[in-house]
């Protein structure tokens, strides 16, 4: 099942409650947790995550773009977040993060990789990975374009990841690059601007889902 996860940080931050209500029924919602250290930006703290989780039934996925990911696992799981990933670049011992997420109740535990990080860093953890996020822009600078070189990493990872491990792409996804990304064989997309800068974000989400299906069907 392909996932499209709109990134709430690109949403209407001054009207979060109304934004969440408008998105009701969507399959997933992406929360970038940025600490101002691992990346420049500071985004959602745990109080906001708790408030978001209390307002919506949409399953949440947390992308920890922070220096100390293990410090966030318990609080995120207590908020009911079932899908959590952290950057391998921030983890001296990625397997300990993955087991902590699992132990605290996360259903999907994953690792994220910045552009510069080769897919092969995942090799020691294949048995623990439910999903992987390949960040496809330089994470520290918003507004940068999708870098198609990330698709070579997707192809490399598919050769050694377990078939059930989902591969997600995050950053700079839009209608012009959607086909090449879907046909590379990914399982999920995180999308910010292409959904939330549209006049009607829900309609933009459904249009992207339709296109994903169309491109995936062509591949079969
Ligand atoms: O957090 C990141 C990358 O780390 C962002 O790329 C957003 O999660 C996606 O936003 P768009 O690039 O789709 O606007």
TrEMBL record:
Tree of life domain: Bacteria
Sorted UniProt keywords: Isomerase, Metal-binding
One term of GO molecular function: D-ribulose-phosphate 3-epimerase activity
Annotated SUPFAM superfamilies: Ribulose-phoshate binding barrel
E.C. number(s) listed in UniProt: 5.1.3.1
UniProt cross-references to InterPro entries, sorted A to Z: Aldolase_TIM, Ribul_P_3_epim-like, RibuloseP-bd_barrel
PANTHER family: RIBULOSE-5-PHOSPHATE-3-EPIMERASE
Name recorded for this polypeptide: Ribulose-phosphate 3-epimerase
């Amino acid at each position: 099942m392909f996932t499209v996860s709109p990134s709430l940080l690109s949403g209407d931050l001054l009207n979060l409650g109304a934004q969440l209500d408008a998105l009701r029924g969507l399959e997933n919602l992406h929360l970038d947790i940025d600490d101002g250290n691992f990346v420049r930006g500071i985004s959602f703290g745990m109080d906001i995550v708790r408030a978001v989780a209390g307002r919506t039934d949409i399953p949440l996925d947390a992308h920890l773009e922070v220096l100390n990911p293990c410090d966030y696992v318990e609080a995120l799981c207590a908020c009911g977040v079932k899908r959590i990933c952290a950057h391998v670049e921030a983890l001296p011992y990625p397997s300990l993060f993955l087991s902590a997420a699992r132990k605290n109740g996360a259903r999907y535990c994953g690792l994220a990789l910045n552009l510069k990080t080769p897919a092969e860093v995942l090799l020691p953890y294949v048995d623990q990975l439910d999903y992987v996020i390949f960040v496809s822009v330089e994470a520290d600078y918003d507004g940068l374009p999708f870098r198609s070189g990330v698709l070579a990493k997707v192809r490399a990872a598919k050769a050694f990841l377990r078939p059930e491990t989902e591969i997600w792409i995050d950053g700079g996804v839009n209608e012009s690059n959607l086909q090449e990304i879907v046909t590379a064989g990914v399982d999920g997309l995180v999308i910010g601007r292409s959904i939330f800068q549209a006049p009607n974000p829900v309609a933009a989400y459904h249009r992207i889902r339709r296109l994903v299906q169309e491109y995936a069907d062509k591949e079969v």
